[in-house]
Amino acid sequence: MIRTYRDEDFGKVLELLRGALVLDTITPGLLKEKLYEDPHFDREMVLVSEKEGAVTGFMQGVTRDIRGERIAYLKLMAVAPGNRKSGLARQMFERLEAMFRKAGATKVRIFDVPLNYFQPGIDPRYTEALCFAWRMGFERFDDTTNLVVDLNFSDWETSEKELKLAGDGIHIRRASEEDRVELLRFIEDEFALWRHEVAMAYRCDPVAVHIAEVNDTIRGFSAYNGNNVGTGWFGPMGTSSSLRGKGIGEVLLKRCLRDLKEEGNKMAIIPWVGPIPFYAHHAGARVDRVFWRFEKPLR
User: Fold this and answer.
1) In what order do the strands lie in the sheet with 234-239?
2) Residue 2, phi then psi, degrees to nearest 5
3) How far, in Å, CA of 218 to CA of 190, rounded?
4) With 80 as the cut, is the pLDDT of residue 299 above it?
5) How many domains does the chain have?
6) What is the percent of the chain where pLDDT is above 70?
7) Is the predicted pLDDT of residue 251 greater than 90, yes or no?
8) DSSP 135
9) Peptide bond preceding 39 in cis form (omega within 30 of 0)
10) Pair 18, 114 in one domain
C-alpha cells in the first residue's frame, strides 16, 4: 500500500534510508532537516509504501520556483532491498509525477534541490538509482562534485591577510544578529538561491557566517552548517563581482574552515563545486564524490 507519510513513520523511514543509502550517514537530525525544515515541505508529496506494518519504500517530492520556472524534485528516495525490481518505485514516482503536473511543474530533477538538499545528484555507485532514473525517462544533463578538506591541512590563520585587506578598506568579521537583514538583502540581490541556507546558518551559536564589508556595507560572505548540519558542510560563499581577485574569498573560506575544525570536525565537505582550482589551492581540497544530475521534462 502506498500512502502519505505520517509523523509516526519517521523511525521506520530513518532505518530504511540507513539500509539503502549505504554510502551515506543518515542521522535523525539530518532526516528532520530534509523533511520538516524544507521551506516548501508538503506532506502530500511525501510517500511511503507499507507492507505488513513495515515501511518498504519512501519517496519525498518537493517543488520550487526557480528563476521564474516551477521545478519539481525527488529529494530523497529508497526502496528496501527485498522489494526492488517489483515496480514499487515506479508506482510511487508516477503518483508524485501526477502531483507535480497538477502543481504546474515543467520538469523533474533528482536530489539537486536548491535551498535544502542532501546531495547534489545521484552518486553513480548507487546503480539501482541510475537504472530507476533511466527507466522513468530521465536524462543525464550534467555532473557535479563534492570536495573534501582535511582540516588538519592548516591552522587556517588569516590575521595577516585581514590586516592587508583592512588597509584597502575591506573588513572581515563574523556576522551578528544585527547584520541579518542587510546580509539577507545583499544575498537576495546577488545570490538569491543561497538566501535560505544563510538564514539557516544563523541558527548556530556563534552565527556560522562571516562577512566582508566596504564602507560599512556588506559586499561578501561565507557560511557553513546552512545545510546538512553536523556533517562539516561548508557554503555557500559569495563576493560582489567588483571585489573579486583581492583575496577576500580565501579569508572568508579559511575563517569557516577554522570554525569547523574548532567544532571537532576532522573533514569539511565543499558541495556542488564550480571553482575546483580555487579550493584546491587555498585549502588543499580534493574531489571526493561525483554526482550525475538527471532531468525529465513534464509535457
Assistant:
1) 170-174, 209-214, 217-224, 234-239
2) -105, 130
3) 12
4) no
5) 2
6) 100
7) yes
8) H
9) no
10) yes
Beta bridge partners of 107: 71, 297
Q: Is the pLDDT of residue 53 over 90?
A: no
- DSSP-based three-state secondary structure for 179: helix
CATH number at residue 178: 3.40.630.30
Domain boundary among 106, 137, 168: 137
Nearest to 111 by CA among 258, 299, 297, 291: 291
Report the mean per-residue pLDDT for the chain.
Answer: 96
Q: What is the pTM of this model?
A: 0.93
pLDDT per residue over 272-298, tens digit each? 998 899 999 999 999 999 999 999 999
Rounded distance between C-alpha atoms, residue 247 and residue 179, angstroms: 22
> By residue range, what is the domain housing residue 120?
2-137
pLDDT at res. 81: 87
Q: Are residues 214 and 107 part of one domain?
A: no
Q: Mean pLDDT, to the nearest integer, of 96-114? A: 97
Q: Select from 114, 137, 160 the last residue of a domain.
A: 137
Residues shown for the chain:
299
Starting at the edge strand found earlier in the chain, the sheet holding 267-270 runs 2-4, 46-51, 54-66, 69-79, 107-110, 286-297, 139-150, 267-270
Q: Contact at 8 Å (CB) between 293 and 112?
A: yes
